């Protein structure tokens, strides 16, 4: 049996957890806000904008990674601005991995939260306004608590998706051991190197985590029968 160093497992696992937690947080925060606005908005082109928000879920990750390079590369629109004014680049560091994972995971939160908001009886919102609550107070105290099931399920699916992110992360953050090498990238490297034992261990860790998260998300999506 091939030998392996547990530190080689710990490093990509910790990096993956860090990237996934932060990316899920940002994807959830932005996803909720956009989902709420889109659930209430009525304008020409709404279907097109909704498709744009969903696009990262169906685009090949390498295509998304290319778009990110165009935006955040040293000659990109945002990348050149950040480099010139702040001497900062998002490329080939943990921030780039978080950004890539958050964008890929965003549609899962967005669609789940939007469905929850649209299924909510508008009478609850109207009752809050009647009691003198502001829009933000109604959103925080009424709409979010009543929609928590769908939002949480979407966040958990986004977390599972972030665990397996590969293409976009590779293009914008690279595959640098102990710096940007997540579980998915470590598995790829291990398979390429022919280390079957180490590959199997990483695959099992990733599979157990994702299956557990998706199972819990499925439970949360089930509506209770009273």
TrEMBL record:
Keywords: Cell membrane, Membrane, Molybdenum, Transmembrane, Transmembrane helix, Transport
GO molecular function annotations of the record: molybdate ion transmembrane transporter activity
Subcellular location: Cell membrane
Xref: CDD domains: TM_PBP2
Record-linked InterPro entries: MetI-like, MetI-like_sf, ModB_ABC
SUPFAM superfamilies in the record: MetI-like
Membrane-spanning residues: 12-36, 48-70, 90-110, 139-160, 198-221
Annotated Pfam families: BPD_transp_1
All copies of domain ABC transmembrane type-1, residue ranges: 13-221
GO cellular component: plasma membrane
Family statement: Belongs to the binding-protein-dependent transport system permease family. CysTW subfamily.
Its job: Part of the binding-protein-dependent transport system for molybdenum; probably responsible for the translocation of the substrate across the membrane.
Name of the featured protein: Molybdenum transport system permease
Gene: modB
């Amino acid at each position: 049996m091939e030998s392996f160093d547990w530190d080689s497992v710990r490093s990509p696992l910790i990096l993956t957890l860090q990237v996934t937690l932060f990316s899920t947080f940002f994807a959830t925060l932005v996803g909720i806000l956009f989902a709420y606005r889109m659930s209430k908005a009525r304008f020409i082109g709404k279907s097109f904008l909704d498709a744009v928000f969903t696009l990262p879920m169906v685009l090949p990750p390498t295509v998304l990674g290319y778009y990110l390079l165009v935006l955040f590369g040293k000659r990109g629109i945002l990348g050149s601005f950040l480099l010139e004014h702040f001497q900062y680049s998002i490329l080939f560091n943990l921030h780039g991995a978080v950004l890539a994972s958050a964008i890929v995971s965003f549609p899962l939160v967005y669609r789940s939260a939007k469905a929850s908001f649209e299924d909510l009886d508008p009478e609850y919102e109207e009752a809050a306004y009647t009691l003198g609550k502001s829009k933000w107070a109604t959103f925080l105290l009424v709409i979010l608590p009543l929609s928590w099931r769908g939002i949480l399920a979407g966040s958990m699916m986004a977390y599972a998706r972030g665990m397996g992110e590969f293409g976009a992360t590779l293009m914008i953050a690279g595959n640098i051991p102990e710096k940007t090498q997540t579980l998915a990238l470590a598995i790829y490297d291990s398979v390429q190197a022919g280390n079957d034992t180490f590959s199997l261990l990483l695959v099992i860790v990733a599979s157990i985590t994702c299956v557990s998260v998706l199972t819990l998300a499925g439970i949360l999506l089930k509506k209770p029968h009273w």
